[in-house]
Design a protein that fits this description.
500 residues; 29% helix
Length: 500
């Protein structure tokens, strides 16, 4: 039995000497080079005691080596667990405790701070990987030969665990199988017409589905090349964009590019521009098309489902709609109360079934059972409606998720941190429209009559406790929070009141 994901990605691989990755600084790796680099790292993982089924967690800066670590983990038959660099040591401690990784790879500057996470249930070992490809892991890998016999893994074996927060309680680990990732990559490569001649400008982070799986796996499956930027920088994007045929980004990328002179000339070679991770404003869609001639293609996905729908490659791409289901994927809209199907134009709960849907939540069978219907559909928590063309629109979120700059922020976690502050009676966290971020995290706070904190004190207290993207951009104070007859805070009323 082959390694299902790796063998599938290699099925349409070009000549080994064709370019696979080129960094912004000009470093070029061929497919042969990438295979050798991931092979050395896979051997290093084995020397560190990583075995098939073990978890390898990584909180590292974006780099070619970080991408090769993902590939190496899959080749070794282990399960990759990418973590946002913005997570604090306290947040990281929870992930390490819950996932029990055999190996935790961190930035060299954080090794001392995170040393206490070593040991535990899995005997976690800590190694380092820096943005420049330095660190103890790469020092070990450098002494290994490049050839590696990929571990045998089937379609249903786990390839990755990605943590996704809930509106209540702790984060949940979404278990993604080899076939979850491969089926989605092959479908997107076909649907979006990627070939070995394509060059993707990659400015996304590689700790979540969009940058790691949608962008990277899809291009590797097509045998194309990736222009690999360490982060989104408008000037660097404009410098490299003339060499690209495609770009994937979050809405914030496009609002910032629209502020740059020279966008029109830089985008001339592009054939495809994709946006996801957050809703794209219709004004942004129209402005980008007017400037470049390109209609941005919006699609819809989640950590638990990878990509689920997509606007068409050919045909109209309607702002505010995310297109029909991908081939092989089923989507239905049902009445949240009865579970019965709804007609065109009716709003209800979006439910999904297909090879893209995850295997469940890590060590959380109760939550897994709660999120699937009796007939096997995943309940997304999003509210949507289909139009007469079969195109889906996401019109709301049953859960009060805030999506800011492409990142998910769950209000309950932020509210608990604010409510714990001296002088705070209670709080409600909402998302308000923001032209740059899509939504800005906003905290509405009720404070004690005496001794309550001001906005600066609230923000200062959260700075060391929550990742930066979770911290409110604005704090406002009210005498009381609006509630319905059952005592539930009416966040829709708060959004309406504070929306300009």
């Amino acid at each position: 039995m082959p390694n299902h994901l790796v063998a599938g990605l290699r099925a349409r691989a070009p000549h080994p000497d064709r370019r696979a990755i080129e960094t912004a600084a000009g470093r070029v790796l061929s497919y042969r080079d990438l295979d050798a680099l991931s092979g050395r790292i896979a051997r290093a993982l084995g020397a560190l005691g990583v075995r098939p089924g073990d978890r390898v967690a990584a909180q590292v800066e974006k780099s070619v080596e970080a991408l090769a670590l993902y590939l190496a983990t899959v080749r070794a038959g282990a399960v990759y667990l990418p973590l946002n660099m913005a997570y604090t040591p306290g947040e990281l401690g929870y992930f390490a405790s819950d996932a029990a990784p055999r190996l935790l790879v961190v930035d060299p500057a954080r090794r001392v701070t995170l040393a206490g996470l070593a040991g535990g249930e899995a005997g976690t070992r800590i190694e380092t990987l820096g943005a420049a490809g330095d660190g103890t892991l790469m020092a070990l890998a450098a002494g290994e030969p490049p050839d590696f016999a990929d571990a045998e893994r089937g379609p249903g074996d786990l390839a990755a665990i990605l943590y996704t927060s809930g509106t209540t309680g702790r984060s949940k680990g979404a278990m993604l199988t080899h076939d979850n990732l491969l089926s989605n990559a092959l479908t997107l490569a076909e649907l979006w017409r990627f070939t070995a001649e394509d060059v993707l400008l990659h400015a996304l982070p590689v700790f979540h589905t969009h940058g790691l799986f949608v962008a990277t796996n899809t291009l590797l499956a097509a045998g194309g090349a990736i222009l690999f930027l360490p982060r989104f920088d408008p000037a660097e994007v404009l410098r490299l964009l003339p060499r690209a045929t495609a770009m994937m980004g979050v809405p914030t990328f496009y609002t910032r590019l629209l502020a740059e002179p020279g966008l029109e000339a830089a985008a001339r070679r592009l054939r495809l521009v994709v946006s996801g991770s957050a809703p794209l404003l219709a004004d942004t869609h129209a402005a980008f098309r007017a400037r470049t001639g390109h209609a941005i293609l919006e699609r819809y996905g989640m950590t638990e489902t990878n990509m689920t729908t997509s606007n068409p490659y050919d045909g109209p791409r309607v702002p505010g709609r995310v297109g029909p289901p991908l081939p092989g994927v089923e989507v239905r809209v049902v009445d949240p109360a009865s579970g019965g199907p709804l007609g065109l134009g009716e709003t209800g709960m979006v439910e999904i079934r297909g090879p893209n849907v995850f295997a469940g939540y890590w060590r959380n069978p109760e939550k897994t059972a709660a999120e699937f219907t009796a007939d096997g559909w995943f309940v997304s928590g999003d509210l949507g409606q289909f139009d007469g063309t079969g195109s889906l629109a996401i019109v709301g979120r049953a859960k009060d998720l805030v999506i800011t700059g492409g990142y998910n922020v769950y209000p309950k976690e932020v509210e608990e941190a604010i409510d714990a502050l001296p002088g705070v009676v209670e709080s409600a966290v909402i998302g308000l429209p923001d032209a740059d971020l899509g939504e800005a995290v906003t905290a509405v706070v009720v404070r004690a009559r005496e001794g309550g904190p001001d906005a600066e004190a609230v923000l200062g207290a959260l700075a060391g406790r929550l990742a930066r993207f979770k911290q409110p951009r604005r704090v406002v104070f009210v005498d009381e929070l609006p509630r319905n007859a059952m005592g539930k805070v009416q966040k829709a009323a708060l959004r309406a009141h504070f929306t300009p």
